[in-house]
Write a structure and sequence with these properties.
mainly alpha, Fic-like fold, 52% helix, globular
């Protein structure tokens, strides 16, 4: 029997709630299976609960691996590399900019037509972060929060 860490269980529950609220405008079925509406995946999983469970396990494993590596975020393209590493085992499109519109809870993420502008904005935020004195913990935290918020709104994957 597999024992799951309490954090893993929390992540699985959170992931399930999150997965139920994403909506892909995917008329060509690039990301989603036209029959089930579930994200296409490398494992051929067609049940949402199974996909959420497997995706969570894979990304937790890859996250632990990343935690042992020294990553340098150079620019917004570094985020694509991280996404590719985390999701490489489950999605062919891991680490690639999305090509369809996506929303969550009725709120659309950044439109594809403005991606270039959004990526430049995130690059600027990362550059600003580098200029903050390392001893200014509060300013660093604020800038990191701003970067995270911008990446989340862009939702490039």
């Amino acid at each position: 029997m597999v024992k799951l860490h309490w954090l893993s269980l929390f992540w699985l529950q959170k992931k399930k709630r999150m997965s139920d609220t994403y909506k892909y405008l995917d008329p060509d079925s690039i990301y989603t299976d036209p029959t089930t509406g579930i994200l296409r995946n490398l494992l051929g999983i067609t049940d949402i609960d199974t996909l959420v469970f497997v995706e969570s396990g894979v990304t937790i494993k890859r996250s632990k691996e990343l935690a042992t590596k020294s990553l340098k975020i150079k620019d917004s393209l570094s985020l694509l590399a991280i996404h590719q590493y985390l999701f490489q085992d489950i999605y062919a499109w891991a680490g690639k900019k999305r090509t369809v519109e996506i929303s969550k809870g009725g709120k659309q993420f950044f439109p594809l037509s403005h991606f270039d502008t959004a990526f430049r904005h995130i690059d600027n935020l990362i550059s600003e972060y580098r200029l903050i004195a390392k001893r200014d913990i509060q300013a660093l935290a604020h800038k990191l929060a701003e970067i995270l918020d911008s990446v989340n709104f862009l939702h490039p994957f």
